[in-house]
């Protein structure tokens, strides 16, 4: 049993929240400033707009008005951090509802990461096309040297699931999408959904060293209307 667990397991009753990770790397990579919602079913972490070696992590919270306690253990050395909590600001609600989803695809993350490396990331926008007909799934960028398109058929090895009801062509600022690539690097699968407002939901499935699974969801709004010639 890790030293960190032995040291504080008898103190758990005094906290209203206790959460532990054997390796905090995955959590630290995707978090900067976060709003945490803890329930008996788990912890939901929301961030709006990171790295350790193998470090054990334990988080405890005694209740309203108390600091958040962080315990980090590496090589038998335990670091204790007390963080004063604040009243959270209202989080922007994208009101993304599964019943309003028009199109949904599930891709292998490794392949999608390779796709992003082939695109012109100096482009201001990334255009995403999802359609029940050809080109099915297309990523496009636009730069001074011209435009580039990468097409993937619905039976591509990259594609694990393809459910498209109608053609949607939308552009999104690359500067807003780039932060989500941190989760993409850690994930094994990614779900891309779009609703009837053309808002995308990128959901990354991350499996840690112990086989446990967590999800990171990323939302943003369309950047601009797509010219008819492109749609």
TrEMBL record:
Protein name: Cell cycle checkpoint protein RAD1
GO cellular component: checkpoint clamp complex
Lineage: Eukaryota, Metazoa, Chordata, Craniata, Vertebrata
Family: Belongs to the rad1 family.
Location in or out of the cell: Nucleus
Keywords (A to Z) from UniProt: DNA damage, DNA repair, Nucleus
GO biological process, one term: DNA damage checkpoint signaling
InterPro entries recorded: DNA_clamp_sf (IPR046938), Rad1_Rec1_Rad17 (IPR003021)
Record Pfam families: Rad1
Residue runs in coiled coils: none
């Amino acid at each position: 049993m890790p030293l960190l667990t032995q040291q504080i397991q008898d103190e758990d009753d005094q906290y209203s929240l206790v959460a532990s990770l054997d390796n905090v790397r995955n959590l630290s990579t995707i978090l900067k400033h976060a709003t945490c919602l803890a329930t008996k079913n788990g912890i939901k972490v929301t961030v709006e707009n990171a790295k350790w070696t193998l470090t054990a992590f334990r988080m405890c919270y005694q209740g309203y008005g108390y600091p958040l306690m962080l315990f980090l253990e590496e090589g038998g050395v335990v670091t204790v951090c007390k963080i004063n909590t604040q009243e959270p600001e209202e989080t922007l609600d994208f009101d993304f509802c599964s019943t309003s989803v028009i199109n949904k695809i599930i891709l292998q993350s490794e392949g999608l990461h390779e796709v992003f490396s082939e695109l012109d990331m100096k482009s201001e926008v990334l255009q995403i096309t999802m359609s029940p007909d050809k080109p099915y799934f297309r990523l496009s960028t636009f730069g001074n040297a011209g435009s580039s398109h990468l097409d993937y058929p619905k039976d591509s090895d990259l594609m694990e699931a393809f459910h498209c009801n109608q053609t949607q062509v939308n552009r999104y600022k690359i500067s807003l999408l780039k932060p989500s690539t941190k989760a993409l690097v850690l994930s094994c699968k990614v779900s891309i959904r779009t609703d009837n407002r053309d808002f995308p939901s990128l959901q990354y499935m991350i499996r840690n060293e112990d086989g446990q699974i967590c999800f990171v969801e990323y939302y943003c709004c369309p950047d601009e209307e797509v010219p008819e010639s492109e749609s």
